[in-house]
Amino acid sequence: MSNVIIVGSQWGDEGKGKIVDLLAEQAGTIVRFQGGNNAGHTVMVESKTFILHLVPSGILHDNTKCIIGNGMVVDLDELLKEIEELRNLGIESKGRLLISDAANLIMPYHKLLDVAREERLNSRKIGTTGRGIGPAYEDKVGRTGIRFADIESDSDFKEKIDRFVKDKNLILKYVLDYKGPLLDSNEVFENLLESYRQIAPYICDSSELIDQEIKKGGHILFEGAQGTFLDIDHGTYPFVTSSNTVSGGACTGGGIGPSKIDAIAGVVKAYTTRVGEGPFPTELNDEIGELLSREGNEFGATTGRARRCGWFDACLLKKAVRINGLTHLAVTKLDVMDKLATIAICIAYEDEHGTRHSVMPSKQSLQEKLTPVYETMDGWQCSTSGVTDYGQLPENARKYLKRIEDLLEVPIFIVSTGPKREHTIILDDIFAA
Ligand code: IMP
């Protein structure tokens, strides 16, 4: 048995959904450990495209167990919708999807607060997905969150909801100058109970379940959402999400100890993208950026927003290797670069004082004013789309991949050359690690 964590190594949207879907064939259990429906994991099976927001990407394989871990924040209505959508596509979640009783709920007021606050921040906004993620995690940490475990067992649950709704209405109206209709606590309570009754059969102590699966000798796959530089501690703060997206989050958010982890794979896009606001040193506001956007179809799977595009940034990735303890790399969207005559890799930054940095510095004021230092290589200018054999890649594409491995000192075990499952080069079996 082997337990593997998969994380995004950049700013999210690296193509984790496809990699998790591929590896789920071998893993019996797939665990999402943080985030909520801010994620959009796209998986293409035959001619169907699935975009999963809350349910782990492993659900598309018949015999897997998929777990929504305690570290996630769950919008119950959205989850019920996703279960229904999967059912309409012939995928039944009942009996296979399990939800941690310690996961927190995204309440209707969290969504209103998220959007109202962004409007208030105006030019300094974060560019959130508006799904209530930040406010839900704030309540969790502030010990005013609502967990599945407490819904039916808590004797003063109704009073709690009344109090929370009243407090949030006051903030919306008097602090955030929110002009829309305020929430009615009876309605919030009734809707929550109604949705909860539908989801109750899915709820369990998932940490215990994962432990049982480990003892039975199954492979467990921990599926990260977003990316390393959106991590609340290690990302480009404050332009981050509100959870620990890095590998350490799999232990706290899945409910298992670090000694149980055997390998950690970082999913890396062959170039860089970012959606939302915040520093992005290798961003390209030119025709090359447009080419990457067009060829890579770089539009958010959750909000449909255009993703900002830029060159591969080894300084960013070196930090991702360190923070996550990456043992393997999965490089995605190599084929998107097929038409480029010249390819650049950022190998250092210069700040406004002329000081060189080999990794992304932590200071916000520095992050915003970094000039990338590039090395360049010749492109391959032929199609790699759908290639399944490493030897069939053009020489310059192999050189590019080798350079990434050398700079990061981590081996590549998967190269993705297209959106479908079969558009993949597999170089190593991570579960044998
Ligand atoms: P939030 O997670 O909705 O609070 O958004 C915080 C930041 O994370 C914003 O810049 C979002 O665009 C970004 N973000 C959140 N989820 C994803 C994702 O799945 N992919 C890429 N960016 C994301």
Polypeptide structure, described:
- With 433 residues, the protein is α/β, with parallel strands linked by helices.
- It folds into two domains: 320 residues, Alpha-Beta Complex (Adenylosuccinate Synthetase, Chain A, domain 3); 98 residues, Adenylosuccinate Synthetase, subunit A, domain 2.
- The chain has 13 helices and 20 strands.
- Strands 9-7-5-2-10-1-11-15-19-20 form a ten-stranded mixed sheet, with helices on both faces. Strands 14, 16, 17 and 18 form a four-stranded mixed sheet that branches. Strands 3-4 form a two-stranded antiparallel ribbon.
- A hairpin with a 5-residue loop joins β16 and β17.
- α3 crosses α4.
- It is globular, with a radius of gyration of 22 Å.
- The relative contact order is 0.16.
- The mean pLDDT is 95.
- Inosinic acid binds next to α4.
